[in-house]
Model the fold of this input.
Amino acid sequence: MRSIRVNPNLMTIFEMLGASSIRKCFDCGACTVTCPFSEEYGGEPFPRRIIKYVKLGVEDKLVASLEPWLCYHCGDCSDSCPKGADPSEILAAARRYLIIKYDFTGRVSRFLHLTNYGWLIGILILATITLLIGLIFRGPIISDRTMLETFAPVIVVDTAGLIVFAVLAIFVLLNVYRMYKFTVGSLKGIPLSIAVKELVEIPKHFLTQVKLSRCSFRSFYFIHLMIFYGYALSFILFVPLLRFTLTNEPFLFKHPLSILGIISTILFLIGLFYIIRGRLEKKHHVWKYSHTSDWVYIWLLALVVVSGILTGIFRTLDYPLPTYIMFALHIILAACFLVLMVPFSKWSHLAYRPFAIYFARLKMIKGSGVHV
Amino acid sequence: MSIGEVLVIGGGIAGIQAAIDLADMGFKVYLVERKPSIGGRMAQLDKTFPTLDCASCILAPKMAEVARNPNIEIISNADVISLVREKSGVFKATIKKYPRYVDEAKCTGCKACVEKCPAKDKLGAPDEFNEGLSMRKAVYIPFPQALPLKAIIDPNICLYFKLKSCRLCEKVCPTGAINFNDIEKIINLYVNAVIVATGYKFVDPRHPALSLYGYGKYPNVYTNIEFERLLDARGPTGGVLLRRSDKRHPKRIVFIQCVGSRDYRINPYCSAYCCMASIKQAILAKEHDPEVDTVILYMDIRAFGKGFQEFYERAIEEFKIKFIRGRPVKIIEDDKTKNLIVAYEDTLKGTIEKIEADMVVLALGIVPNTPAFLADLGLIEDGRPKTLDPQDPIATPIEGIYVAGMITGPKDIPDSVAQGSAAAVRAATYAISRREVVAYAR
Done:
């Protein structure tokens, strides 16, 4: 018989990760019968099994679980919880925990989430590095008219952007591979053709997030989609199409592509407005509790968006120095946001969720249920 | 006023026991009851746990004792509206006695008026004693063992009060007890000690947090006190289990525990009585019809009293009652059959399951019934009476005021009786200790 290692401090770790009411749970199963996904995955005791693992401290079982990613944090279970243990927040904490566990470096994510001032230190280090690189590679400052491309040569920004993109993509895929190893283990027992056919689940759920629409809190689905598509549009605009957008000519309202930029900023601003307001009001369960990583994620994203908009405005109004400063700030913030969030924190749910749905289907095909 | 006068507020089992004990010690007792008859919730019960004794057989002799004892004066259909401690240390209680429209001195309880009253069925009103499962007339006696065994007229449905006609009861009453000119009376009592035994109230089964159980919407969802009335031979169906929707015998009954208990949104505390009450009801349902399947969905079986654990084990072994640990959230009704589908997680197996039931019984949580006059005295804290010492649940911080029964927290009948007696002794001790003070004041 295989022995099971128990970590008696797991509850405390979870409390640090945001599951502050976990000790209130008395295992009644009300969350399980409320969760709309419990039955979909063959009658799995959905949130409660994860809560039980945390209470027992069985980390191995927890790391092998896909359930936290199958949860879309609609908050219905928290509404039905008679003890106020807030199961949806416990699952959110489980996602933070798993992000730490999937992190291939084994350190960075843990440092950010579980150390005092971890985020601040992380942001300061990255900002300094980006600033130094910027100072080394920047072009001449022309102050009588706005020459953004001269100040920040597109060849430099583009190359740096692509390098960051490639590195981060590798990081995320390494983490996803670790997730696959922890959860599915091997493809034994799954015909390759089916495993390939099922791959379609990944882009489907990545692009539509259709499961979130089953949430009783419908407007959350649209808000979430807005942020996602705002993000997707600006990514297309400023990574593959950078040579058209980073030019010396004014961009905003002049270039035909700027319509995409305007749409993406509108989507971003509406989505961010609702999310920040919701998190401050704390009315709905989805937003009742905000972990530090949530706030860092949202504010960094909001600052990246706002600095980007301001760069565009200053550029259009032909204010050279404010444009350069704002652009430098924008790049620094974007670097902090991407490098910290994509592989090591909240952003990674964009990758883990669709992959988890795919892995869950593989496990179902294996016949072992979602669970090990 | 003499030094030997004591007020007992609440005529349930705790108040009755306190009144009897004080009266036997030679005190004059005023027993104030809000309803037309004393007896309280226990009068509504069919059987008691864990012995399955008939509740009436225990309660009725005690009520008869109250009736027989010349030291006890029952003031029924009355509310205590204020309680003040005067400078001399005497308590002044102001009691509002609602009109009964029947002269208590003349009425013999012969029921001649009840038989003739035309305000019945649709013209009647839901019978409080049967939890609204049957209708009563405008003039009625609450239940056969009522005390005082006197008729009462409900002015809300009485045809005389509504249409200024009828007066049939007045014509048939052999003693001329009907008095349509009865009015509300204010009674001032001066007493040396007060026992408050106002009991409990049920959590509202229509509370928004319980709305998914569909009580009030689905006919076959019952509260446990309604189910108790169905089991009772004196009840609305004469002791036959019949569903509200189609008057058929239910074959599968599901009991849901902790409804409105241990729930931070409604009542965070355990209600203590419901585990045993549901086991009792499940056993009684089996005794009524051995073919019935009973399932109890529980959180924890709290079998703390004498004979409780054995009762629980007997329910499993002898009566084959199924116990499943899980808390359902929602009940779905089948449109055609009016059967109920209960989904729950069997938390000991870790599986999601569904049962189709003919009838669902909600084991409602209870909270102390704290009267306004106690709150006015500053004696209510967290929905319960304040006590001087946590180890002494009977004494309030005001000497001379004692509490007993369910008002101090959920408990079973034996504990309520014990507290009634205990409070009686404390009230008597206090009243006697004041003898010299009162004599000096004179």
